[in-house]
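Example record for the data management plan.
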Amino acid sequence: MKKNVLTLAAVVLLAGCTSAEEETATETEQTAPAEKPAAEKETGPVIDASYFNELKEVDGLQVIQNPENPLVLVNKEFALPSAYTPPDLVRPNVQYSFGDQDIEKSYMRREAAAALETLFKGAKEDGQYLFAVSGYRSYDRQEEILAAGAAASSEEEALKSIAPPGMSEHQSGLAMDISSESNGFELNQSFETTAEGQWLKDHAHEYGFILRYPKGKEDITQYIYEPWHFRYVGGDAAVMIYENDWTLEDYFEQVKPAE
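Corresponding structural encoding:
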């Protein structure tokens, strides 16, 4: 079931007013918008400080020092260490576009994998059959993919849709590219027009996932629209991001670390 973010407001119950002036005062007090707690008004939503990137500059790059953070922000500004491999990779029990092959891209981090299984089950209950295409990807594999993309066109063109090594969410083990048989198991923008793609867009947040590179947000994410790429962030963050039409970058602009 979808989680809602609730704001608690005090309800003032007034009785016994007899004059017109008192009735007006009562109506004003009852209909005035509830005040937010001072901390929220000043700082916005608060999350644990451990969810923010810890960074160290290495050879001119901002390298993430806490890559196992489930809300790690990986993009063209913040890179994962080249040697990083998540320690808890498992193979989710879901359908894959490549069948039962036990290969690198079939893996995810344990918590994300469990959530993906639940998401696929929820889709099936709604009559939508999803297929996992590409999950974890090592730094070295990302180098190969970028080189192939650059050779096919140019590096500048390839970088619009292919992350530089270290800057791919796939290396975090928290992302999965998803497609459907109706889309020929392809990863392309046509996936948004399928029933499966639309279901994911509308329901992934209920299972802790976000559409990581949405349409119209390319200037923020620095990647083209990818209706196939879903990132696990956990239930609370996913709902907040979905309901506010944010990217993960937007989320970290709005939330503040708890002191």
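Summary line stored alongside the record: Residues 1-33 have pLDDT under 50 and may be disordered.
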